[in-house]
Amino acid sequence: MTPDWAYEREHWRRGYFRVAGVDEAGRGAWAGPVTVAAVILPGLAMDYPFRDSKQLTAPQREEYAAEVRRVALAYAVEHAWPDEIDELNILGATHAAALRALERLRPPPQALVTDYLKLRVRIPISAPPKADVLSYSVAAASLLAKTERDAVMRELDRQHPGYGFAAHKGYGAPAHRAALERLGVSATHRRTFAPIRRLLEGSEGGLFPAQP
């Protein structure tokens, strides 16, 4: 499936021509930030190669993210770090990062399309599921969020060697689980996430108790 302009056109018909796509990366990870990007593409209904970042290889994501930066009318990327995630919960931190990214857009957006992220804003918003697959604007935001977060995780891999952040990007891969058992919790882990919380509490049965 390729994106199109259906959701953007709904806003264009109402006179809102600066439509920002919003998407995030890293919500389900156990470590590192959740990263949110907002992108306003020119309202020209052009075909772009942009796709949901999960559908692309890493080199394609980098190539297309560079193209997003080249053609976008405006874009911004914001991170919510583990301390903010632990304070607000993951959804609250994602919303906070999204609002920060939107505030940085110049010119400001007149309407939004998000990937089921129901932000409290004073402008029209469409928040359908799978918008990163359906909308060019959200696909463009997906590319920026994913590539920016991957770069952060490579840097965190250098700062916290042994966890394998550059490979698994902080998600619950077997190598990450083994590293946690061996090294313990780092400063960049999300302490309120259940697997990390269990390790910190030293619960019986280890980090990953047997399933009933």
Automatic annotation (TrEMBL):
Cofactor(s) in the UniProt record: Mg(2+); Mn(2+)
GO biological process: DNA replication, removal of RNA primer; mismatch repair
Ion transport as UniProt keyword: no
GO cellular component: cytoplasm; ribonuclease H2 complex
GO MF annotations in UniProt: metal ion binding; RNA binding; RNA-DNA hybrid ribonuclease activity
Cytoplasm listed as a keyword: yes
Record localization: Cytoplasm
Domain RNase H type-2: 17-205
Classification via SUPFAM superfamilies: Ribonuclease H-like (SSF53098)
Reaction catalysis annotation: Endonucleolytic cleavage to 5'-phosphomonoester
The protein's Enzyme Commission number: 3.1.26.4
Cofactor note: Manganese or magnesium. Binds 1 divalent metal ion per monomer in the absence of substrate. May bind a second metal ion after substrate binding.
InterPro entries registered for this protein in UniProt: RNase_HII, RNase_HII/HIII, RNase_HII/HIII_dom, RNaseH-like_sf, RNaseH_sf
Role, per record: Endonuclease that specifically degrades the RNA of RNA-DNA hybrids.
Protein known as: Ribonuclease
Species for this entry: Deinococcus marmoris
